[in-house]
Amino acid sequence: MASIAASSSTSLLARPRQLVIAANQVKCFSYGRRSHLSFNLRQLPTRLSVSCAAKPETVEKVCAVVRKQLSLKEEDEVTAATKFLALGADSLDTVEIVMGLEEEFGIEMAEEKAQSIATVEQAAELIEELLLEKAK
Amino acid sequence: MRIRVMSQLQRSLSIELPSLVPLQLPSRMETHLWFIRPDEVKSTSLLKHYSQLLSPTEKEKVLQMRGDELKKNALLARTLVRATIARYQTNNAVDPKALMFKKNMYGKPEVDWQNYTNCNNPPLHFNISHTDSLIACGVTVHVPVGIDVEDKERKIKHDILAFAERFYSADEVKFLSTLPDPEVQRKEFIKLWTLKEAYVKALGKGFSAAPFNTFTIQSKVGTKGEYNLCKMTEMTASSLEETNKCDGEWKFSLLELDDSHYAAICIEDDEASGGAPMRVIVRKTIPFVEDELISESKLL
């Protein structure tokens, strides 16, 4: 399969999971644009950026950190849309999750931003934002 | 002292819930701390009655929780808040189902008294905290309150000092690093966590108003269960000298609850108190069923 890059002209067929994640979003938290996706598997127009939805690998890594921190069982479902609170995470768990994510990705999250993360997707997006900043 | 309200409730739970036993308001500088043990509430009938007290939004939030245990705990938390607050309306009976809640501009939940034309409603403040095995609700009059409870045995998955260095103040890191025993260190870390959380929740302005590393909480020398809050003032550009401003604006209490949890309470100081420490009345409860006054609250 084609390598997955954070570019805006990726075919949906190559990244079926990405479609699911984008379809769950009404708004892009980082960029505030509405997603105008329809639900067929047409090639996306190149002007429509999918970079408002985080990469699947980032989401997966976040899920792994969350699972570990909350000691979830195999069968407990964690997806991009999952809210930490719904999994029973309290404030101490959230902070430990943030620490775990900082370690996993080699970044540092400002406390206010870290506190505003409520879902896996939001965490993944913030992480990618920070990684981009770091790469500059 | 255990007050059993309605034992026939246990036998026949198809009847309506009994009316709530009214309560005396907390006095100034007094916090009422109520807690419930989810594993002591087993009756599905009782839980069904509880769920009928919740607003549609609350019910939706309960349903969003993953798994039966989390759903039950979320239900019990809302029931505890509604049933407890409704009991303080000593003049007029308040239906716990009719209570309305709103959030302040930072997201802290408060009672919305707009429904009640009786202007004598006491200015009740409340705050809740939950863990897997215990849910607590603190109630005060006139002053904002924040509470936090944690399981004493809670394991921290990261290195304690690394965690403290990342999030706590320099003085707190110093204090924790002087403790040689890792188990003692872990316990003190958790106690500090509950105190700091309680403060931020009492403040009610969200985390960005009081990042954990900008204030220190330490026990007051020569007292038991009393703590001081010291805030770091801004460092001047010319020198690296930090000054700590310790004020008595906030009062803290830390206690051991039911032998299993640490509970921290923070309230805004009422100048009328004359510097007296906070009084805490602890009661274990199963809403509509029974209350138990815990006569000794172990101060830490």
Automatic annotation (TrEMBL), chain A:
Belongs to the acyl carrier protein (ACP) family. The keyword Plastid applies. Keywords: Chloroplast, Fatty acid biosynthesis, Fatty acid metabolism, Lipid biosynthesis, Lipid metabolism, Phosphopantetheine, Phosphoprotein, Plastid, Transit peptide. Coiled coil: none annotated. It comes from Arabidopsis thaliana x Arabidopsis arenosa. Residues 56-131 form the Carrier domain. This is Acyl carrier protein. It is found in: Plastid, Chloroplast. GO terms for cellular component: chloroplast. Pfam families: PP-binding. It comes from the Eukaryota. Carrier of the growing fatty acid chain in fatty acid biosynthesis. GO terms for molecular function: acyl carrier activity; phosphopantetheine binding.
UniProtKB/TrEMBL annotation, chain B:
Residues 47-136 form the 4'-phosphopantetheinyl transferase N-terminal domain. The keyword Transferase applies. Keywords: Transferase. GO terms for cellular component: cytosol. One of its GO terms (molecular function) is holo-[acyl-carrier-protein] synthase activity. One of its GO terms (biological process) is lysine biosynthetic process via aminoadipic acid. Its EC number is 2.7.8.7. Pfam families: AASDHPPT_N, ACPS. InterPro entries: 4-PPantetheinyl_Trfase_dom (IPR008278), 4-PPantetheinyl_Trfase_dom_sf (IPR037143), AASDHPPT_N (IPR055066), P-Pant_transferase_sf (IPR050559). Residues 144-248 form the 4'-phosphopantetheinyl transferase domain. This is holo-[acyl-carrier-protein] synthase. It comes from Arabidopsis thaliana x Arabidopsis arenosa.
